[in-house]
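Per reviewer request, we include the raw input and output of the structure prediction for the construct analysed in the revised manuscript.
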Amino acid sequence: MKKFVDRNSELNFLESEFQRENSSLIILYGRRRVGKTALLSEFIKGKRAIYFLVTEESEAQNRSAFQDIVADFTGDSLLKNATVDSWKLIFQTLLQNTKIDTSGKKIVIAIDEFQYLGKSNPAFPSVFQHIWDTMLKDANVMVVLCGSLISMMESQTLNYNSPLYGRRTGQIKLKQIPFRHYKEFFPEKSRQELIEYYSITGGVPKYIELFYDNRDIYSAIEANILNKASFLYDEPNFLLQREVSEVGSYFSVIKTIAAGNQKLSKISTVLEIKQTGLTKYLKTLINLDILEREVPVTEENPGKSKRGLYKIKDNFILFWFQFIYPNLSYIESGNEELAMRKIRQNLIDRHVSYVYEDICIEEMWQMNSDNMWGFHFDKVGRWWSNSTEIDILALDNTGGNIIFGECKYWNGKVGPDVLNALEEKAKEVDWNNRVRHNHYVLFSINGFTDDLIALSKTRSDVLLRQ
């Protein structure tokens, strides 16, 4: 059962573009399976709309398919049976029929997987630019160009040297669905189960859909990832093959980071590649939303910081490179149960507990919006030095308030010792040598001891969240 969840801001934006008096051209792109087509389908419900899915066939075959769709939409039998070798003629026919229609309703033209047209004919963006400038720009239409190959969509529609540069009226780079919406997908699951599901599916709707009917996270992994017939078994390879030419090199970089080597110098050493030689791989993976470069939240100039760490931000990719890639030999030889045993032994400590920190940071923003502290912070993230790590650090640059946070995804309840340790670590944080007001927040999946709860009631600077 498919469920359409979240995407309210994106739908509102598309609707506002649809209500424009003039025509509009929207670029909608993002990684595969993130829900672009579902968003388009939801948006065009009840509207006069043409939806065209481009295939990887030749330009001529795609043009013929588009011709058929327009002929059916307009009821033009002449177009249906004509031999047409011009995109312009098809769009002219569409617009002529639109003028005859007396309803005056705007037409939505949605072209999905647009990048394949540019792939089959590198001149196609120029062809479409001419059609837009001479016909569509002044017509009562809304055009949405949608694509899942991020690098190609950017080069064909968004980059300065693209013929379509400057034509768009808006763009959406669709991201994964946040954790806060997971209860809408799995209303019967506990918070702990939701966290475990999110730690694997990472907000990707297609992955979430696969996990609907499984009793728990382990049966879901066994059925949908360890199963060699499932598309998730080889998903990272498929994703990268579409975006990059040197899949093996990119796999090596991701594998190295997944093993805990997050500093540029360490990655360089492990791979025996000069740091300058890693730049293109890291930049590409960041652009694909697979990696992110993270610096301590107190850094004034993040781009120039020498304390940056590279982190896999895609939960599924992280899981796959931690637990599937190292065990491919077992799985391929029919010993899936051995790989599954390793997953059961290590999933929580090596994977879920780290994703839990990201969830807590997401929830910090919601708490900030709910005015949980009586002030509002400007930044939130992690902090580390050579000897100390703090899961959450939030900064209120206006009022001098600073929040220190700890996230514990373990079986027992959190007690005062965790708070005491956090207070000690807080002393190591140098924040512009300014006078500050310290606050503390503790997240615990399994709650807190009675003595910590009692202590928190006597201190206005301590907040407990389960």
